[in-house]
Amino acid sequence: MLTASRTKWIASLILGGILVVLALVGGKWQTTYAADAGVNQVPVIDHIYPSKAPAGSDNLVMIIMGSNFGQVEDFIRVWLEDADHNYTAAPIEVIDTALSVVITDTLMVAPDFYSIRVVKSNGLSVPTIPPDPIYDQVSNAVDFEVYAPLRIFLPVMDK
Fold first, then answer.
1. What pLDDT, in 10s, does the model give residues 78-114?
2. How much is the pTM?
3. Residue 1 has pLDDT above 70, yes or no
């Protein structure tokens, strides 16, 4: 009788220990984190600054304002898309309602229109471009224009 109760007690301790260990590492299982409402929400872009730049500009820092961006730079990318190419940029700094990113001068060589989106990964990895619908969430698109600078030449008049 004593050995049956001891066996049940030892089995209960082992099972309880396994459950405690699984509960502690549960965050690595890509659970929904239901306590944090912003984790699994799709990012939304309200506006960007600047929204346009002249062709031939140097690197510029773009501020993207919106919501649900998260706070971990490693899991967020800015997706720039024109008619022919896809580009990604890693953000410099991210808070839940804004992020900053460097737009390089190589993207502003000639006049062009870019569609800007924020891609957030729920898979705890770098988002892929084009986004993987299972792990990546994509924001709405906002236009960024690289325009031809206006040049005006005034003749010098001598009297």
1. 999 988 888 999 899 888 889 999 999 999 899 999 9
2. 0.68
3. no
Residue with tokens 């700094």: 93
Structure confidence by residue, pLDDT tens digits, 4-41: 677 877 877 787 777 676 676 665 555 544 445 555 78
d(CA 40, CA 91): 19
The CATH code of domain 44-147 reads: 2.60.40.10
What does the buried/exposed string (b/e) look like for 106-133 if buried means 16 or more CB atoms within 10 Å of the residue's CB?
ebbeeebebebbbbbbbeeeebebebee
DSSP-assigned letter for residue 7: H
Which tokens hold the place of 73? 């730079």
**C-alpha pair distances (Å), 134 with each of 63, 104, 126, 137:** 27, 30, 13, 8
What is the domain partition of the chain in residue ranges?
A: 1-29, 44-147
